[in-house]
Amino acid sequence: MSLAVWGGLLGISTTAGLALVVARIVALRRPRLEMRVLPYVRDLTSERRASVPVERSHVGAAVFGPLLRSAADLLERTVGRPASARRRLVRAGLDISVHDLRVQQVLWGLAGFGIAAAYGVLRTWTRPGDPLPLVLLCIGAFVLGVLLRDNRLSSQVRQREAAIVAEFPTVAELLALAVAAGEGPVAALDRVVRRSHGELSRDLRAVLARIRTGEPVADAFDRLAATTGVPAVARFAHGVAVAVERGTPLADVLHAQAADVREAGRRELIEQASRKEILMMVPVVFLVLPVTIVFAFWPGFVGLTLTY
């Protein structure tokens, strides 16, 4: 055969192989029926959804999934405290289970382990020596990655609760206006949830969903008070529950709570300013003051130099 025939056969085989690879990738990326249906099954909680066996299309998940789950189970037995982790996941607004959190911690630890191992390999190429410190470094990097994921969860909790505190006065005022206009608590909650977007609105939307499924209004708000980590929202939920049970004026309660949260925000701002008073003096002392001194003394110094 000539070179042209060999080249044509090679091109045809390469094109056919690429076509097969592309077709397989498209087939793997197509969502399965379970993945399309499960998000619309509203009566399943996140834990039960996580327990439904859904076939993974990713090759890495199919190969390393059992190992990651085993490592997550080992980490769960080592770390413990699943109730605390579950509560922080709820406060952070993450729709994942504790087991998924442990898997993410293992992944973060493996990332730290890989970085430390790469550094150790490069160091042994340049400076061969005792491998024990490098092994300890890799283990420490793995532990550090696990702790960083836990710290990231705590940071997500703080950020979400800060957003809830910032949204609370506006939402409480809207609820108070709707109740004062003659609407009931459930109708006012529905109106505010449909017209607001934020972290607090997500929690109130969950409360409204539980009320619509038949749970009493007071019990739904008591559950919100038990699960939230924001004291203002807990007082708000308790106040609404008591107002609904005893028939007290709800609008006055909401106005008072919104005013209390605004006053607490002003006090916190003043406290932050007092704590950072020294830090606020840094630009004045190290930037403004030296420039002022230079502008004041530089002309006289130049004049003395020229006179001399």
UniProtKB/TrEMBL annotation:
The chain crosses the membrane at residues 6-27, 106-125, 131-148, 278-298. Residues 173-295 form the Type II secretion system protein GspF domain. This is Type II secretion system F family protein. Signal peptide: none annotated. It comes from the Bacteria. It comes from Nocardioides vastitatis. Pfam families: T2SSF. Keywords: Cell membrane, Membrane, Transmembrane, Transmembrane helix. InterPro entries: T2SS_GspF_dom. It is a multi-pass membrane protein. It is found in: Cell membrane.
